[in-house]
Amino acid sequence: MREYLGLIFAYLGDGEPPAFPLLPEFDHPEYVIKHEVSLWPCNYFTQLDNSMDQAHTAIVHWQFQRGVPTVSAEETEGGAVVNVVGPGYRNPSYFMMPNAHEWGSPPRLGGKNKWSYARGWRVPVDDEHHCRFGIDVVPMTGEEADRYRQQQAERWARATRPWMDVAEDVIAGRMSPRDLKPEDYPDLVNIQDYIAQVALGPIARQPFPERLGRSDAAVSLVRKIWERELTALAAGRPLTKWRRPDTLWTEISASGGDLQ
């Protein structure tokens, strides 16, 4: 067991644990760092599908005013990289086997041109629940970071109810999604994702044959990787030794520039 980046990590396998996977870009004590921990009443693979579905932003997160992008994906030494082309889409995102997702985000309130980068772990509790652990980094220091924290505190002070309660009200029909305004709900993205995923049921079951399209390229790839690895595990064959690159994110790479 080890504490790292404000979270507790534990090795639950047999024998000696492997080398602990460090995340150098996230381990910066002066940067603005936000943690998230929440329990969702749905299977964790629904969350993995969502993390790879870049096109869902255009539909679910309407406030960003993005169109449906062109999506491509390829396997990497760590899992998969998802590339998107379209208005408002400027950076790749990454799936890290077996259950982590990393992405860059546009400048936040008061952030000027500071793009943030984030990592989320989707950890199953049982078949019908999973925990979301996340860390979000904004590369600011000193007075700039202090001003940003103050602006964020004022923004979050406007939230009068827990965001998950709001999402449950929408699912139950007590509220309309049209009632949700970005200025009233600082965690609107989580509310929208929760509605879209939890409303599918504890385990997403489609009443009709699923037909994946071109925008689902990353979803399809990650499912194939998982199927391949589980088939190997069941047959007693060696599994892929996944490795995250030492560095994925810089302020430049998060904003869609060349990776450093």
Task: Tell me what you see in this structure.
The chain is an alpha+beta fold. The protein has a domain at 30-159: Naphthalene 1,2-dioxygenase Alpha Subunit, Chain A, domain 1. It has helices at residues 44-52, 56-60, 142-156, 163-171, 188-198, 217-235, 251-254; strands at residues 2-4, 7-9, 32-40, 70-75, 79-85, 93-96, 100-105, 116-126, 129-138. Strands 3-9-8-7-6-5-4 form a seven-stranded antiparallel β-sheet. It has a two-stranded antiparallel sheet with strand order 1-2. Strand 8 (116-126) and strand 9 form a beta hairpin. Helix 1 (44-52) packs across helix 6 (217-235). The protein is globular and about 55 Å long.
Structural class given helices, strands, pairing? alpha+beta
Q: Tell me how many strands there are.
A: 9
CATH topology of the domain at 30-159: Naphthalene 1,2-dioxygenase Alpha Subunit, Chain A, domain 1
Termini separation comes to: 31 Å
How much of the residues is beta strand, in percent? 15-25%
Give the C-level CATH assignment of the domain at 30-159: Alpha Beta
Q: Could you name the CATH homologous superfamily of the domain at 30-159?
A: Naphthalene 1,2-dioxygenase Alpha Subunit, Chain A, domain 1
Tell me, what's the shape? globular
| Main β-sheet description | 7 strands, antiparallel
Can you name the CATH architecture of the domain at 30-159? Alpha-Beta Complex
Order of helices and strands: EEEHHEEEEEEHHHHH
Instruction: Summarize the amount of helix as a percent range.
Output: 25-40%
* Number of discrete helical segments: 7
- Strands of the widest sheet, in order across it, are 3-9-8-7-6-5-4
Rg: 19 Å
Task: Show unreliable segments.
Answer: none
Q: What number is the mean pLDDT?
A: 89
